[in-house]
Write a structure and sequence with these properties.
The chain has helices at 4-9, 14-19, 36-48, 64-67, 69-82, and strands at residues 26-31, 52-57. It has 98 residues and is α+β, with helices and mostly antiparallel strands. Strands 1-2 form a two-stranded parallel sheet. α3 links the parallel β1 and β2. It is flat and about 35 Å long. This is Alpha/beta hydrolase.
Length: 98
Amino acid sequence: MMRPTSLAADPPGEGAAALRTLTAPVLVGVGEHDMPDFFEGGEGLARDLDAGETVVIPAAGHLAPLEQPAAFCTLLRDFVRRLPKQERTGAAKGADLR
């Protein structure tokens, strides 16, 4: 369910249409205890993207990276590791993905 204020920020739906053109893998993280609008919005976003994937970050709300930094970093690192090598070529030189 989208709030009226969310729709007002993107009245013609151009943002959603632009997101659907993405071809790169996308990881959408949602906090287990986030508000329903955001939780459902994250799941819907990943569903709308061809290469979208949703992960639920346990024991986190809306600020999951701040609330559960270790879990967030693990999910992000694992996602990047699963990418084909050519998808990772834009990474900063010397980035440690261990």
